[in-house]
Design goal:
By secondary structure, this protein is an alpha+beta fold. The protein has an 8-stranded mixed beta sheet with strand order 26-25-24-23-27-21-22-28, with helices on both faces. Strands 3-4-5 form a 3-stranded antiparallel beta sheet. Helix 22 (about 640-650) links the parallel strand 24 and strand 25. Helix 11 packs antiparallel against helix 12, helix 13 (about 330-340) runs parallel beside helix 15 and helix 28 (about 815-830) runs antiparallel to helix 29 (about 850-870). Bound molecules: 1-deoxymannojirimycin. 1-deoxymannojirimycin binds near residues 217, 326, 328, 414 and 415. It comes from Panthera pardus (Leopard).
């Protein structure tokens, strides 16, 4: 307690809740900082500290502690101390008296933790009483049902080291079992894991997934377990998860949580400080480029607030203002310096040290920041500050000869404790699980930038890292051009054009795009197909342009929020009614906020025809082909309303917009609602519906095969009786992504391909000069913006596109829809034999249970997100 200059003893200070679970009256800070002393070349002090630990520390306390924290800090601390004690002893100068006493203590602690694993799943209870274990009345623990993924998945390094040092295999076995269980429970179609899991049933309790709090070191330990233990299955697991992380969570330079079942859906609009370790892990993997990008983004947040706030929004505002002197960013800085040799990272380290000395240094140590904005302190200096922060900062600046042993012979645990790599060949009696066949072939493109040796990665280019950082240097801007003197009137007089208004903006108008650029506004195409606008005032051509840009963004935000407030419409249906489908194929379609309202009017029936140009963004060149028909148009390049007007002018009686993000599907994406253009759309009289790519391709395939394809656009599927005006034949519900239906099935090649395609297509579409990766960096959701605090970096979804997916997700119509589908499915099962064998593409009836379960999951996830936001 650096403000009151006392040690914190559990029970003697007011409880701080969960944070205190790390304290077990076992001299936490002393043990956690043992190996730091050796790294800092304080060998004598290390020897004294070890003696103190052996003399004073008691592990048999009646205290309930966190299994995870006790493992990484105390067991890890003892093992790190032991590793360096035997290294020193061998050198022949220090620790000559040492006889594995720290290891014996570690073993004693290991046995104390083992009862936590007494669950059917093998996942440990989150807490244990050091004296009484679990469950007994006096233990006051053992009734918990949930634990975090990191809590259950961050044991293998310490437990395996303990087994290999001592020959007692049980520790490694238990840690492996917990990891095996987590791997089995990964969400099979996304290959992601949730934040919390039920230790008895293995159900995911929190289904959001990121690389920060609650999951972080699970991933870290898979990769490091491979390094330490040489077991390929850990690497294969890590690579599978890493592929999923890069596919869904990584939106360089951001890392945003997603939902494990709907990984294209962001689960929140802020990031936590713990994810700052991830660039370091990416370095270990060899994926340097995204590591540089994320690290640079984090550094700019730090430069803005002096420290990394515990959580910050995607537009870099403070979300949770405290900072408990976490070491993760220093850790990543160290690894990036080791990888690149770029002195820039020494400058970063210098800034960290200066800020610590300037803002956190107090007479009795370094105090955590209560609020990074005010610089207020908390009477707290967590043990990881000495265990990790000191170690990494020292190592960042240390030359090889400053360290009395070869640091390359060790691996860092998550708490930066050092375990010797020679353990990989010692006491390998644990049977490795032969799981190779479980792993799917990974798409190598995610590893394009990986390389085991960074010397090979950029041998002749010392500016490599800088070239990646450069475009990001203004990603978190420091100043906002307030108080600019208005000289706009004069500039009008001198012939300049009036500023562009948000409501007039058209994404296809090159002049508008040029103006946007001048105002420092760039257009970003997100992975999920939405477009965002981002302004960096600093990139504007002049201060007046910057101010215009700011106003444009504010108008756009208002426009966007107006649209969000507009009524959210339920899904619509596109039903193929011509031979040989006769209404069996029903595609879930998104509604439009303009044009004929299908819930109030009779359905529209007609043959389909593709418009030319296919994007429908200009006058159609094939009006004769679409006249009296339902025109198919591709999404993108201009406003939906503009497309509608063009096909209407050509005589179309309706329109279907097909998503240009290949592989998108209504199964994996929330309902898509087409917004108007912010102007009066009363002139649009025809109905317009939206189909995701997978559903759209069903119609396109049908045209290819049967040429004449007739569809029905309606608010819900019509039964076949109505269509044939005769016998009652039910409709099929197309589930274009059957894999998503059953979590237990491994994801198909198709699936991974489609997600990949979404990613690449969003990078390819380039309406505006997107040369700067910085511009693709801000994926903030509109709801996280308020004009007052956007500084000069703001983003918003323009009106053409769907606004916040969360807000467009329909939950209000659930009841009606369930009943409807229920009937259809019941009827369908009665007439199964009536299905036409010609209809063969991936058509599948989605059981009502699965539909309901899916919806329930969504609702749960959104409720959870809301709770988190609160
Ligand atoms: C450390 O105790 C470990 O690094 C852990 O894995 C998570 N982070 C804390 C410090 O922030």
């Amino acid at each position: 307690m650096p403000l009151t200059c006392r040690g914190r003893v559990r029970g003697q200070e007011p409880s701080r809740g969960d944070v205190d679970d790390a304290l077990g009256k076992f001299s936490l800070t002393l043990i956690d900082s043992l190996d730091t002393l050796v790294v800092l070349n304080k060998t004598k002090e290390f020897e004294d500290a070890v003696r103190k630990v052996l003399r004073d520390v008691n592990l048999d306390n009646d205290v309930v502690v966190s299994v995870f924290e006790t493992n990484i800090r105390v067991l890890g601390g003892l093992l790190g101390g032991h590793s360096l004690a035997i290294m020193l002893k061998e050198k022949g100068e220090y620790m000559q008296w040492y006889n594995d006493e720290l290891l014996q203590m570690a073993k004693q602690l290991g046995y104390k933790l083992l009862p936590a694993f007494n669950t059917t799943s093998g996942l440990p209870y989150p807490r244990i009483n050091l004296k009484f274990g679990i469950r007994k009345p006096e233990a006051r623990t053992g009734t918990e049902t949930d634990t975090c993924t990191a809590c259950a998945g961050t044991l293998i390094l310490e437990f395996a080291a303990l087994s290999r040092f001592t020959g007692a295999t049980i520790f490694e076995e238990y840690a492996r079992k917990a990891l095996d269980f987590l791997w089995e429970k990964r969400q099979r179609s996304s290959n992601l894991v949730g934040v919390t899991i039920n230790i008895h049933t293995g159900d995911w309790v929190r289904k959001d997934s990121g690389v920060g709090a609650g999951i972080d070191s699970y991933y870290e330990y898979l990769l490091k377990a491979y390094v330490l233990l040489g077991d390929d299955s850990f690497l294969e697991r890590f690579n599978t998860h890493y592929d999923a992380i890069m596919r869904y969570i990584s939106q360089p330079p951001l890392l945003l949580d997603v939902h494990i079942h709907k990984p294209m859906l962001n689960a929140r609009t802020w990031m936590d400080a713990l994810l700052a370790f991830f660039p370091g892990l990416q370095v270990l993997k060899g994926d340097i480029r995204p590591a540089i990008e994320t690290h640079e983004m984090l550094y700019q947040v730090i430069k803005k607030h002096n420290f990394l706030p515990e959580a910050f929004t995607t537009d870099f505002r403070v979300h949770w203002a405290q900072h408990p002197l976490r070491p993760e960013f220093a850790e990543s800085t160290y690894f990036l310096y080791k990888a690149t040799g770029d002195p820039y990272y020494l400058e970063v380290g210098k800034t960290l040290i200066e800020n610590l000395n300037k803002y956190a240094r107090v007479p009795c140590g370094f105090a955590a920041m209560k609020d990074v904005r005010t610089g207020s302190h908390e009477d707290r200096m967590d043990s990881f500050f000495l265990a990790e922060m000191f170690k990494y900062l020292y190592l960042l600046f240390a030359d090889k000869e400053d360290i009395i042993f070869d640091i390359e012979d060790y691996i860092f645990t998550t708490e930066a404790h050092l375990l010797p790599l020679w353990l990989s060949t010692t006491n390998q009696s644990i049977s490795k699980k032969n799981t190779t066949s479980e792993y799917t072939e990974l798409d190598d493109s995610n590893f394009d930038w990986t390389c085991p040796n960074t010397q090979i990665l950029f041998p002749n280019d010392p500016l490599y890292a800088q070239s990646i950082r450069e475009p990001l240097k203004n990603v978190v801007d420091k100043s906002c051009p307030r108080g600019i003197i208005r000289v706009r009137e004069e500039s009008f007089r001198s012939g300049a054009k009036p500023p562009l208004r948000a409501r007039d903006f058209m994404a296809t108008n090159p002049e508008h795009l040029e103006i946007l650029k001048k105002m420092g506004v760039s257009l970003i195409h997100l992975k999920d197909g939405r477009v965002q606008l981002v302004q960096h005032a600093i990139q504007a051509a002049s201060s007046i342009d910057a101010e215009d840009g700011l106003r444009f963004m504010q108008e756009m935000i208002e426009l966007s929020s107006q649209q969000q407030k507009e009524q959210q419409l339920p899904p619509r249906a596109v039903q193929i009614v011509s031979h040989p489908f006769f209404g069996r194929v029903v595609l879930t379609a998104g509604p439009a906020q303009f044009g004929l309202d299908l819930s109030k009017h009779k359905e529209t029936r007609g043959f389909v025809a593709s418009s030319k140009p296919y994007n429908g963004c200009s006058e159609l060149t094939n009006p004769e082909a679409v006249m009296g028909k339902i025109a198919l148009i591709q999404r993108g390049q201009c406003m939906f309303a503009e497309k509608a007007r063009n096909i209407q002018n050509a005589g179309a009686i309706g329109g279907i917009v097909i998503d240009d993000n290949e592989g998108s599907s209504s199964d994996t994406a929330p309902l898509f609602q087409m917004a108007g253009d912010g102007k009066d759309t009363d002139d649009i009289k025809i109905p317009m519906l939206f189909l995701f790519s997978k559903e759209g391709s069903i119609i396109l395939d049908a045209i290819r095969e049967y040429e004449e394809v007739e569809v029905l656009l309606s608010d819900k599927a019509k039964d076949r009786a109505a269509i044939l005006k005769g016998k009652m034949i039910p409709s099929y519900i197309i589930n274009s992504n059957p894999e998503m239906e059953n979590e237990e099935q491994p994801s198909s090649e198709n699936d991974s391909q489609s997600a990949e395609q979404i990613t690449s297509s969003s990078q390819e579409v380039d309406l505006v000069d997107q040369g700067s990766p910085e511009e693709s960096s801000l994926n903030s959701q509109p709801e996280s913006l308020s004009p007052a605090d956007t500084d000069n970096a703001a983003s918003v979804s323009p009106s053409e596109q769907i606004s916040n997916p969360m807000e467009n997700h329909e939950t209000t119509s659930l009841d009606g829809e369930c009943t409807d589908l229920d009937n259809q499915l019941q009827e369908q099962s009665e007439t199964e034999e009536d299905s036409n064998p010609n209809v063969s593409w991936g058509k599948k009836v989605q059981p009502i249970d699965s539909i309901l379960a899916d919806w329930n999951e969504d609702i749960e996830a959104f409720e959870m997100m809301e709770k988190d936001e609160l």
